[in-house]
Amino acid sequence: MSVDGTTETFFPLGADDLAKLDAIREALLDPSPRRIGRLDQWGLADDYEIFAEVGTYAEVRLTMADGTVLDASLSVPRNLAPGQTVPAVVMPAPLIGIGHRAYLGMIQRWTLGGYAVLAYSQRGLAESTGEIHVAGPKDVADATEVIDWLVQNVSVDPDRIGFFGASYGAGTSLLAAAKDPRIKAVAGTSAWADLFTSLYENGTRHLAAFEALVKLFGEDRCSEEFRGVIQKIRADTIDDQVREFARVRSPRHHLDAYNASATPILLTTAWHETIFSVPAVIDFHNRLTGPRQLLVQVGDHGNGELPGLAGLIAKPTAMAYRWMDHFLGGTAGDGEAPRFDVRSEQMFQPLSDVRHATWDDYVLPKKRFHLADAAAGQSDGQLVEGGAAAGWTRSVKATGTGTDIVVAPQLVQTGLLERLGLPHAYKPAEIDRGLAAVFTTAPLERASVVRGELELRVTVKPQQAGATIVAYLLEHNPVTGRANIITHAPYTFSAEQAGRETTVTFPLQPADYPVQKGRRLQLVIDTHDPFFAAAHTTAPVFTIDLSSPKGAESYLDIPLHPVD
Fold first, then answer.
1. Is the pLDDT assigned to residue 533 strictly greater than 90?
2. 107 vs 11: which has the higher pLDDT
3. Three-state helix/strand/coil letters over 126-167
4. Within 13 Å, how many C-alpha atoms sit on residue 182's CB side?
5. pTM score of the predicted model
6. Last residue of some domain: 331, 361, 391?
7. How far apart are CA 90 and CA 103, in angstroms?
8. Among 275, 309, 368, which residue's Cα sits nearest to residue 103?
9. Which of 75, 218, 238, 266 is a good FRET partner for 336, with 20 to 30 A between their CA atoms?
């Protein structure tokens, strides 16, 4: 997906993936030798021959109390003894055109592990009727009705029900667990914790991600309430209605319910997540008091679990099988118990695996780098440890377009390349210094790692209301002249701040990034990124002054430490 909002799904299944899912569906519906034989090209024929002996599969329609019909599929182990019950996993669909069929590659694993499995598309999605409410109260009520139907129609143990969901399905799963105590465990991949901060960060709309979500939902299928919110966000009218709409749909605002019931919650996200707020997910995880686990992977939204949804090996789905086995008593996983910790991959190194007991154990202390004026004979500013640097001013032009430094050239797709070890390369030498200010460290004397939370303080005087700055931290290779992005964050100034010097302090996205010896860290402060706002070249050009007054000196706190 490009930052102009053109996309078809956050889960970019290729033609082969879709063909495989279609073949799996046919083999599940009709487990004849011909149908199962078609799976041989993917090496799955033997697995589905076994499934045909031990499980059943059917596609069902579930009618809700208000007449809405949910498109669903049900798989149940065969040959249960009289009175025997099994654990169940319910899977609300991710935001994808094929709805609940996105989970077809997982159903065989769950069922062979002794679970009844019910996957469904939320109202308004795929072939389900009704309007889209974005995991609102009606969607949460639907989840309860789905459980009711499952308990009444299938030999399910009502005390062993879990919810698994990816993306949109993760949000629905978490919100349902806050309301229905029968949900005994949740695993949410590419989850969200706070919908408001996912769409509106430091006064700045995540416009490209928002428009992508709206396009995937289909605006004509959205409820009247949601359509009203869409128009307000487009107009940058962030009022109490928008905040309340987001609040009731944010798991972070239901912490008391999760903690009172000690609901076991597994969450996964990505360092370069461009759809939902990573800091909000981390904060939500940290504030849970029941069993919890957090996984942060290389890439963007949906990248890490995508192979697992298709039935292949992936950390998020492997962890979810272990999670449910431990709390519900099935055998879908590898027999290992889950770990209640923080697990991550270092950025752009998907084969890495870092584990710590808690987030506080995981992060490293911050070191303060002061933003200083250029050294003699240099044009760029400096990032220096030691004494604060006051008295300098740098001016940049806000023209309605920015430089080539952006959050991600393509949402989701850029992250997929990162999982292949191919991060996008930027060219800092080509940055127009009239449009962006650049501050650079000296070459690092030792290999190091940036691990944890970052914070920027800078004094800004925008000449126009609604001015935005976007801060990016890059790792720059002086030999090649190329750079990779480590983290970023925007900040938008109010009308009251126009024409006034305002000192702002705000966090950048957390990171876990190894930096090689001899590389430089480079802070770029730009005025526009298509991720946050569409280009508007007809707007008047104005100046943004960046400075470091005495007593409020500018700095960037970085958790940078040498490694062996």
1. no
2. 107
3. CCCCCCECCCCHHHHHHHHHHHHHHHHHCCEEEEEEEEEEEC
4. 17
5. 0.94
6. 361
7. 11
8. 309
9. 75
How many domains, the chain?
2
Distance between CA 22 and CA 183 in Å, rounded? Answer: 30
pLDDT at 5 over 70: no
Pair (538, 394) in one structural domain: yes
Report pLDDT for 6.
Answer: 39
Strands 555-558 and 448-462: antiparallel
State how beta strands 183-189 and 265-270 pair.
Answer: parallel
DSSP letters for 37-51: HGGGGGT-HHHHHHH
CATH no. for residue 188?
3.40.50.1820
Give a yes or no: residue 8 inside a domain: no
Residue that terminates a domain, selected from 300, 335, 361? 361
> Average pLDDT in the 416-429 region?
94
- Do 400 and 347 fall into the same domain? no
Structure-block tokens of residue 492: 């938008």
Domain residue limits at 494: 367-562
DSSP 466-497: T-EEEEEEEEE-TTT--EEEEEEEEEE--GGG
**Helices 104-112/45-54 angle, 10° precision:** 50
For residues 320-338, give the mean pLDDT: 97
**Tens digits of per-residue pLDDT, 242-301?**
999 999 999 999 999 999 999 999 999 999 999 999 999 999 999 999 999 999 999 999
> What does the pLDDT read at residue 4?
40
Q: Considering the domain boundaries, does residue 138 fall inside one?
A: yes
What is the rounded average pLDDT for all residues in the chain? Answer: 94
CATH of the domain at 414: 2.60.120.260
- DSSP-based three-state secondary structure for 306: helix
The structure tokens listed for 472 are 């990016």
